[in-house]
Amino acid sequence: MSLLTAQSAVHLLRRLGRTGMVDEALAAFSTLDSHAKNTKVRNVIIALLLKSGRVDNALNVLDEMLLPGSEFRPNDRTADIVFNKLLEKMNGPEGGAKEDEIAGLVAKFGKHNVVPNTITLTQLITKLCWNRNTNLAWDVLDNVMMLNGLKDAAPCNALLTGLGKAREFEKMNLLMRKMKDMNIQPNVITFGILINHLCKFRRIDDALEVFEKLKAEKEEAKDVAPDVIMYNTLIDGLCKVGRQEEGLRLMGMMRLDDCAPNTVTYNCLIDGYCKSGEIERAHELFNQMVSEQVVPNIITVNTLVNGMCNHSRISSAVEFFREMQQKGLKGNSVTYTVFINAFCKVNNMNKAMEFWDEMSKDGCLPDVIVYYTLICGLAQAGRLDDANSVVSKLKEAGFCLDLVCYNILISEFCKKKKLDRAYELLNEMELVGVKPDCVTYNTLISHFSKIGNFKLAHEFMKKMTKEDGLLPTVFTYGALIHAYCLNNNTDEAMKLFKEMSATSKVPPNTVIYNILIDSLCKRNEVNYALSLLDDMKFRRVKPNTTTYNTIFEALREKNWLDKAFKLMDRMVEEACNADYITMEILTEWLSSVGETTKLKLFTQGYSVCDSAA
User: Once rounded to an integer, what is the mean pLDDT over residues 400-412?
Assistant: First the structure.
């Protein structure tokens, strides 16, 4: 075998490779005379080994070529074979090359003044950035640039894209400076990448600065000119931050640059004006679009429909949509979702259901959000049968109810006293793995408290805390305390209040104090109610007008003027404004006992207790 020439060895290795005799080819290569193992022969055996997945064997052959004193060094063909094959197997499960190994090979090839070709280098940079390894991608590109082995902008564009996604804007600027130093001419794609990522992260002024540089490059006749995509990106960016007037001016600049505005251009501007509530301006742009024979698409329609619905112009939105339908523009899932959501918000469930039916007839598949919106809207409108019907369709479509839907449905079934259905939903939640939250439990606790089933209410509270590890909220305690008070069981309410104050991490609020004060006053325990008012001050819970009105009414019944005067002063001190009920109680009472002067001082915001009768 040692008598084979390099050319004969190439033919033999290729023949063995074509017949799948890889081991034989490797054996033949190993018996070759060292002088016959030239670069071409080595390229053939490396290609064969890589193709058959024998990466380690291929790299062993390559390592010999990459040695500093190697007789047969790698060439561009070696680089093409190695990097193309290794990139295919990069991070593969079996025998794949690792990112850092490939990057290391770029450096080793560089020592022999061999670099990957532009396409291969671009692919490598792209893959490294895709795997969020922008630092390694930077090192690879920097290595190639240092060897003056880069003349094309494509690999730089790949790295700029990766850096943009990682928000490494400083490195993006540094790369642009390096490109300039290395005389690598940026192209329209380079500027487009910069502008796109800056706009995406709301750095509009920086994007405009890049755009101005591009315009300057054009004036210097460097064959770089902004295109319609770049203009649209900038206009969209400006509109997204509420600078649609600047976007409109930029559209005028487009025309001067012989870039005709297209559907996307108008869609961006129409969206900007809709979001700022300038619906008339959006319509003007739509009419201009049509007059310039720029064809509107469903995105145009949806943008205007959504804008009108969001600004309480639902009827106009429906009228506009019907006009578009007559002109052959059919609605899609987004269109119908907007209408269904808008009508649910204004509690017009008949119209919402009309659009739901129309959506089905038009063959538009609703997404899970549409189902949720409609189910919640129907339930809150008390149309539980219709809500159940939509729930069935949701399940047929392969979706599941979310926690918000479950909570609303359970609440509405409780209101309608359909407890069996509420329990069914609670069991269903457990089966499908949707954990009840505080809202679920508070709904049940509140309902059972109201109907006087305190045993069940406390059981749910126990389940809430012990089994599901949820802390009771102020609403949980409030529901029970209120129910006890309504059932003339103020003692139990106070017991729960004391437990809440002593052990709960949720302090009582003004509403809970008001419930208790009202209940105590009705039981003629006015001093106890006043002590709760002092407790509020101690706990820094601010009483409101309702608190004072309740106590004033109780004090009037007892004709306790001195306590009323102190309370009036306290109300003034705490800047709690009297309402018509306060004035009605005090006017009638104080007038009857000849204390109108004090009433006048109170209304003027002066102290009452210090003044002469």
Answer: 93
- Whether residue 159 contacts residue 137, with contact meaning beta carbons closer than 8 Å, is answered with yes
Q: Which two tokens stand for residue 307?
A: 């804008």
Give mean pLDDT, residues 529-533. 93
Distance of CA 112 to the CA centre of its chain: 49
For every residue of 84-140, which 3-state class applies, written as one string? HHHHHCCCCCCCCCCHHHHHHHHHHHHCCCCCCCHHHHHHHHHHHHHCCCHHHHHHH
What is the helix (H) or strand (E) element at residue 269, kind and residue range?
helix 263-275
Give residues with Cβ within 8 angstroms of 396, minimum separation 6.
none
Distance CA 139, CA 198 (A): 23
Angle at 92 between CA 86 and CA 96, to 5 degrees: 45
Gap between the Cα atoms of 102 and 136, Å rounded: 10
Residue (of 58, 43, 35, 57) closest to 13 by Cα position: 43
Is residue 408 within 8 Å of 376, Cβ to Cβ? yes
Q: Which helix (H) or strand (E) holds 560?
A: none
Residue 467 DSSP one-character state: I
User: Is the pLDDT assigned to residue 613 strictly greater than 70?
Assistant: no
Task: For 493, list phi and psi in degrees, rounded to 5.
Answer: -60, -45
Task: Find out whether 37 and 1 touch, Cβ atoms under 8 Å.
Answer: no
- 608, 565 contact by CB (below 8 A): yes
The amino acid at residue 317 is A
Q: How far apart are the C-alpha atoms of 277 and 273, rounded to whole Å?
A: 6
Tell me the HSE value of 311 on the side-chain side, using a 13 A CA sphere. Answer: 16
Predicted local confidence at residue 277, as pLDDT:
92
Whole-number Å distance between alpha carbons of 413 and 382: 9
Angstrom distance (rounded) from CA 555 to CA 537 = 19
Neighbours of 522 (CB within 10 A): 15
CATH number corresponding to 332-431: 1.25.40.10
Domain boundaries, the chain: 1-61, 332-431, 436-508, 533-613
- pLDDT tens by residue, 328-360: 888 899 999 999 999 999 999 999 999 999 998
Q: pLDDT-derived band of residue 363, with 50, 70 and 90 as boundaries? A: confident
Q: What was the pLDDT predicted at 584?
A: 94
- Phi/psi region, residue 221 (left: phi>0; alpha: psi -120 to 50; beta: rest), is left
The DSSP-derived string for 514-528 is: HHHHHHHHHTT-HHH
Residue with tokens 């390894």: 133
| Residue 40 Cα distances to 86, 101, 503, angstroms | 19, 23, 84
Weakest-pLDDT range from 114-118, 503-507, 566-570, 589-593: 503-507
Here the tokens at position 595 are 């204390």
